Amino acid sequence: GQQLNQSPQSMFIQEGEDVSMNCTSSSIFNxxxxxKQDPGExxxxxxxxxxxxxxxxxxxxxxxxxxxxxxxxxxxxxxIPSDVGIYFCAGHAGTYKYIFGTGTRLKVLA
Amino acid sequence: EADIYQxxxxxxxxxxxxxTLECSQTMGHDKMYWYQQDPGMELHLIHYSYGVNSTEKxxxxxxxxxxxxxxxxxxxxxxxxxxxxxxxxxxxxxxxSATNEKLFFGSGTQLSVL
Lengths: 110, 114
Fold this sequence. Notes:
Chain A is mostly beta strands. Chain A has strands at 5-7, 10-14, 19-24, 31-37, 44-49, 55-58, 61-65, 71-76, 85-92, 98-100, 104-109. The N and C termini of chain B lie far apart (35 Å). Chain B is mostly beta strands. In chain B, 0% of the residues lie in helices and 48% in strands. The radius of gyration of chain B is 13 Å and the shape is globular. Chain B has strands at residues 4-7, 10-13, 19-25, 31-37, 43-51, 54-57, 65-66, 76-78, 87-94, 104-105, 109-113. The interface between A and B is medium-sized, with 26 and 29 residues.
């Protein structure tokens, strides 16, 4: 099925470092959602974005809706060990269908 | 905080058994979904519903069936489980809104068919 391109695929970082990841699409979306998923668990919604250019924060997380409506970015500041997991984006174009990113696997070294 | 619940969390059964995975949400959402996901892999939509008595097949062909008799309840049934059905099954729900969409997931059911 269709997927969004998400990068990087994986990253190892030191505790305290900032993290950036992005999601790109060939299609325009009305909504961008960012999730974190731990092994064996369901995805947890972190941030929702609804307008081009919108910048939204949730604690140490900040996400932006790209101005072209074809991309989105997630930043994590001052990472901690519990930030480890898989982060993925999802785009919604106004139908029943959500398109999901390929995921960024984050590992934090203490 | 999402109020969407899935049971059981883990299920190990033998081939040929009939199983039902339960999903309930208390948010009054119209739209509900079932996704199948192998570890570390993409989510595949197998069923969705716009509301009571509405069910549709998703993008991934599945031998499972679903029903939506009540708004809050969206169970998934496998009439005869096979090892190829081993996977994680995720239920999700959202408002039927043209704007401010949010998709909430349950904790998932890890199914192993021996």
